């Protein structure tokens, strides 16, 4: 916990100074102090993305980043002083109860983050993606070795950029810091609501009621949490869009949406908010502000398409359109396999059941899934039906309607692909914030609810078996209980720290096979390149393909060899 807190403090300084540089570059005014490190982390991610085309994200990147941060700090001494003053002013607005609660949440977040990750994707590709970026940067055709490695989320790029891997500690722990940022942001507006009784402040301020669920994502580098929090910031900034100049509001909304999409392409529907803002402020269209936003989007898109081509040959991965015919292009056989698995995973049905079922039968099965999955599925369906009627008397019905539209578009996409609740929970949470603001309006109700949430977080950390009883999500591994050593030393970044890895060779592919990890896609924290021998044999037997190295060294990349 102590090391995590020190790491977060260092990240906060680096992100904030970088954020002041980004703010100056885009000339954004009236920026909330918590959003400064958010846009700063985005700037660092883009720098890392460019760097990774040529070099690994090792100590050379760390040194370069440190030099840049120090340079910005010397150049922006006055801005830093103003920023620290705005932070101090923000904390002074908190009520005593919220100050105490925030301190407890920070401590609990550090304890939870210091624990062992409990999301199974961490064991299949989170760790390995970050390790490849740390060691080699972007690698040609990496998705041919393990299909999940073709994802290369911007979120993992950020972790690789700042995880201090050269110290052999591997702090893949930005999720907890982002959740703390969101709580600080929310507490500020909740304190304002207590004084002003303005509904918009209440919608933004009720975010911490969802901490129990969100805490499940902070012990591993899950991109889902990054999208949840950025989506929350997008909606909140749109709600309070009249509090700053139109140009600053539009640029900030654009940056937050671009950052979200760079993390996960399914966040694309958040673009509804900056577009709606632009239509409401048509005078901006004739100004350079829109050009600046578009150029930023194009710049990020080039990095996004470039890294996708680099690792899979598919600029829009996981879509197989506009494929680039390079030697390392991901095989059509692999893409067809992944696409065939997508719907069954979302509907919790077999491929055979999917092929023989109508959409209504699939929808009914999805709706009636047990435990949390079914609960969230029913909830999002009911909200989509009732939300348009519920928002008629909401003060800012325009923002609420845009939220409804964004959610509807997202669900239509998911129902046609893979409607797993972790893909839509962020929007479900925002819909609930609007509804709750009409019901929970007095601090004598809000504060006890926040206390109950805090008690729930304690249960999640110290009684992890309770989570397993509610959860059927296959992405969730057995949560390990609190260990006293977590107070000063973070736990390992994998649940499978006792796995042995056997060095294997198949034709020209040298790889490491996890010996006692009974998980088809599992790799854990294995040495590079790491892949299950069972996985390779499965594809060789049933699909007649094998991954092979493009050259003598693994940093040259991989391709798929089709066997006769």
β-strand number: 4
Overall spatial form: globular
Mean pLDDT: 91
| Structural classification | mainly alpha
| Number of helical stretches of at least 4 residues | 24
Major beta sheet, specifics?
Answer: 2 strands, antiparallel
Q: What's the helix-strand series?
A: HHHHHHHHHHHHHHHHHHHHHHHEEHEE
Radius of gyration: 23 Å
Q: Which band does the percent of strand residues land in?
A: under 5%
Description:
This protein has 564 residues and is mostly helical. The protein has 24 helices and 4 strands. The strands form 2 sheets. Strands 1-2 form a two-stranded antiparallel sheet. Strand 1 and strand 2 form a beta hairpin. Helix 1 packs across helix 3. The longest helix has 25 residues. The protein is globular. The model has no long low-confidence stretch (mean pLDDT 91).
Short description:
The protein is mostly helical and 564 residues long. The protein is 62% helix and 4% strand.
Protein traits:
564 residues, mainly alpha, two-stranded antiparallel sheet, two-stranded antiparallel ribbon, 24 helices, 4 strands, 62% helix, globular
Describe the SSE topology.
Blueprint: H1 2-26, H2 35-51, H3 59-75, H4 77-92, H5 96-113, H6 120-135, H7 142-145, H8 154-162, H9 174-196, H10 199-205, H11 211-214, H12 223-239, H13 246-263, H14 272-280, H15 288-312, H16 332-347, H17 351-355, H18 359-367, H19 371-390, H20 397-415, H21 421-439, H22 443-462, H23 465-470, E1 501-506, E2 509-514, H24 533-543, E3 545-549, E4 558-562
Antiparallel strand pairs: 1-2, 3-4
Helix pairs in contact: 1-2, 1-3, 2-8, 5-9, 5-22, 6-8, 9-10, 9-12, 10-21, 12-13, 12-21, 13-14, 13-15, 19-21, 20-21
